[in-house]
Amino acid sequence: MTEGDRVAATNRRARHDYAIDETFETGMVLTGAEVKSLRSGKASLAEAYARVTDGEVWVDNLHISPYEQSNQRDLDPKRSRKLLLHKREIERLMGKVQERGLTLVPMKIYFTRGMAKMELGLGRGKRQHEKRDATLEREHKREMERAFSRKQSGKR
Questions:
Q1: pLDDT per residue over 140-150, tens digit each?
Q2: Domains of the chain: which residue ranges?
Q3: Fewest 10 Å CB contacts: which of 46, 59, 72, 113?
Protein backbone atom coordinates (compact mmCIF):
# COMPACT_ATOMS: atom_id res chain seq x y z
CA MET A 1 0.00 0.00 0.00
CA THR A 2 1.44 3.38 -1.00
CA GLU A 3 0.77 6.81 0.48
CA GLY A 4 -1.76 7.90 -2.16
CA ASP A 5 -4.10 4.99 -1.37
CA ARG A 6 -7.45 5.56 0.31
CA VAL A 7 -8.63 3.01 2.89
CA ALA A 8 -12.27 1.95 2.52
CA ALA A 9 -12.51 -0.55 5.43
CA THR A 10 -10.21 -2.07 8.03
CA ASN A 11 -10.37 -5.12 10.27
CA ARG A 12 -9.28 -3.60 13.55
CA ARG A 13 -9.37 -6.88 15.48
CA ALA A 14 -7.17 -8.78 13.01
CA ARG A 15 -3.82 -7.95 14.63
CA HIS A 16 -5.34 -8.43 18.09
CA ASP A 17 -6.74 -11.90 17.35
CA TYR A 18 -4.03 -13.16 14.98
CA ALA A 19 -0.24 -13.13 14.83
CA ILE A 20 0.17 -12.03 11.21
CA ASP A 21 3.31 -13.44 9.57
CA GLU A 22 2.88 -12.24 5.99
CA THR A 23 0.54 -10.00 3.98
CA PHE A 24 -0.59 -10.15 0.35
CA GLU A 25 -2.22 -7.56 -1.88
CA THR A 26 -5.15 -9.05 -3.79
CA GLY A 27 -7.61 -7.76 -6.32
CA MET A 28 -11.33 -8.41 -5.90
CA VAL A 29 -14.10 -9.33 -8.35
CA LEU A 30 -16.87 -6.81 -7.63
CA THR A 31 -19.89 -5.30 -9.33
CA GLY A 32 -20.01 -1.59 -10.14
CA ALA A 33 -22.52 -0.90 -7.38
CA GLU A 34 -20.26 -2.64 -4.83
CA VAL A 35 -17.31 -0.47 -5.88
CA LYS A 36 -19.39 2.68 -5.44
CA SER A 37 -20.54 1.48 -2.03
CA LEU A 38 -16.90 0.77 -1.05
CA ARG A 39 -15.89 4.28 -2.15
CA SER A 40 -18.45 5.69 0.28
CA GLY A 41 -17.01 3.48 3.06
CA LYS A 42 -19.98 1.15 3.46
CA ALA A 43 -18.17 -2.12 4.14
CA SER A 44 -17.39 -4.26 7.17
CA LEU A 45 -14.54 -6.75 7.55
CA ALA A 46 -15.46 -7.69 11.13
CA GLU A 47 -16.64 -11.25 10.41
CA ALA A 48 -14.87 -11.78 7.09
CA TYR A 49 -12.56 -14.70 6.41
CA ALA A 50 -10.79 -16.05 3.33
CA ARG A 51 -10.48 -19.60 2.08
CA VAL A 52 -8.76 -21.45 -0.76
CA THR A 53 -11.09 -23.68 -2.79
CA ASP A 54 -10.25 -25.50 -6.05
CA GLY A 55 -7.20 -23.33 -6.73
CA GLU A 56 -9.11 -20.06 -6.15
CA VAL A 57 -9.18 -17.72 -3.16
CA TRP A 58 -12.58 -16.55 -1.91
CA VAL A 59 -13.56 -14.13 0.83
CA ASP A 60 -16.76 -14.90 2.77
CA ASN A 61 -18.88 -12.77 5.13
CA LEU A 62 -17.45 -9.52 3.76
CA HIS A 63 -20.41 -7.18 4.16
CA ILE A 64 -20.70 -4.49 1.46
CA SER A 65 -23.93 -2.53 1.90
CA PRO A 66 -26.08 -2.08 -1.22
CA TYR A 67 -25.52 1.22 -3.03
CA GLU A 68 -28.58 3.45 -2.58
CA GLN A 69 -28.74 4.74 -6.17
CA SER A 70 -28.24 1.29 -7.72
CA ASN A 71 -30.93 -0.89 -9.25
CA GLN A 72 -29.04 -4.09 -8.28
CA ARG A 73 -30.98 -4.70 -5.08
CA ASP A 74 -31.01 -8.48 -5.46
CA LEU A 75 -27.28 -8.98 -4.64
CA ASP A 76 -26.53 -10.49 -1.24
CA PRO A 77 -24.38 -8.06 0.79
CA LYS A 78 -22.44 -11.01 2.33
CA ARG A 79 -21.98 -13.09 -0.82
CA SER A 80 -18.68 -14.88 -1.52
CA ARG A 81 -16.30 -12.78 -3.61
CA LYS A 82 -13.35 -14.06 -5.59
CA LEU A 83 -9.90 -12.67 -4.82
CA LEU A 84 -7.35 -12.27 -7.59
CA LEU A 85 -3.83 -13.58 -7.00
CA HIS A 86 -1.11 -15.07 -9.16
CA LYS A 87 -1.19 -18.84 -9.47
CA ARG A 88 2.15 -19.21 -7.65
CA GLU A 89 0.85 -17.15 -4.74
CA ILE A 90 -2.33 -19.24 -4.52
CA GLU A 91 -0.34 -22.50 -4.52
CA ARG A 92 1.95 -21.13 -1.81
CA LEU A 93 -1.04 -20.06 0.30
CA MET A 94 -2.69 -23.47 -0.15
CA GLY A 95 0.43 -25.21 1.10
CA LYS A 96 0.84 -22.99 4.14
CA VAL A 97 -2.81 -23.12 5.15
CA GLN A 98 -2.97 -26.93 4.86
CA GLU A 99 0.44 -27.77 6.36
CA ARG A 100 0.94 -25.37 9.22
CA GLY A 101 -2.65 -24.57 10.17
CA LEU A 102 -2.36 -20.90 9.28
CA THR A 103 -5.42 -18.75 8.54
CA LEU A 104 -6.13 -16.19 5.82
CA VAL A 105 -7.42 -12.99 7.44
CA PRO A 106 -8.76 -9.99 5.48
CA MET A 107 -6.94 -6.97 6.94
CA LYS A 108 -8.16 -3.96 4.96
CA ILE A 109 -9.77 -2.83 1.73
CA TYR A 110 -8.31 0.16 -0.05
CA PHE A 111 -8.18 1.85 -3.43
CA THR A 112 -4.93 2.18 -5.35
CA ARG A 113 -4.86 3.75 -8.81
CA GLY A 114 -8.66 3.51 -8.90
CA MET A 115 -8.74 -0.24 -8.24
CA ALA A 116 -10.20 -1.86 -5.12
CA LYS A 117 -7.60 -4.03 -3.39
CA MET A 118 -7.65 -6.17 -0.27
CA GLU A 119 -4.73 -6.75 2.08
CA LEU A 120 -4.86 -10.39 3.09
CA GLY A 121 -2.88 -11.54 6.12
CA LEU A 122 -1.50 -15.02 6.69
CA GLY A 123 -1.37 -15.68 10.40
CA ARG A 124 -1.95 -17.95 13.36
CA GLY A 125 -4.69 -17.35 15.93
CA LYS A 126 -3.48 -15.99 19.26
CA ARG A 127 -4.42 -17.66 22.51
CA GLN A 128 -5.97 -15.66 25.33
CA HIS A 129 -2.75 -15.39 27.35
CA GLU A 130 -0.86 -14.16 24.26
CA LYS A 131 -3.44 -11.38 23.81
CA ARG A 132 -3.04 -10.36 27.47
CA ASP A 133 0.77 -10.34 27.16
CA ALA A 134 0.59 -8.16 24.05
CA THR A 135 -1.73 -5.69 25.81
CA LEU A 136 0.55 -5.50 28.87
CA GLU A 137 3.61 -5.00 26.68
CA ARG A 138 1.86 -2.19 24.80
CA GLU A 139 0.90 -0.48 28.08
CA HIS A 140 4.46 -0.74 29.46
CA LYS A 141 5.87 0.73 26.26
CA ARG A 142 3.38 3.61 26.42
CA GLU A 143 4.31 4.33 30.07
CA MET A 144 8.03 4.32 29.23
CA GLU A 145 7.45 6.76 26.36
CA ARG A 146 5.46 9.07 28.66
CA ALA A 147 8.17 9.00 31.32
CA PHE A 148 10.83 9.68 28.70
CA SER A 149 8.89 12.60 27.21
CA ARG A 150 8.35 14.10 30.72
CA LYS A 151 12.07 13.81 31.41
CA GLN A 152 12.88 15.47 28.08
CA SER A 153 10.51 18.39 28.73
CA GLY A 154 11.89 18.93 32.24
CA LYS A 155 8.67 18.06 34.10
CA ARG A 156 8.65 15.57 36.94
A1: 888 888 888 88
A2: 6-125, 127-156
A3: 113
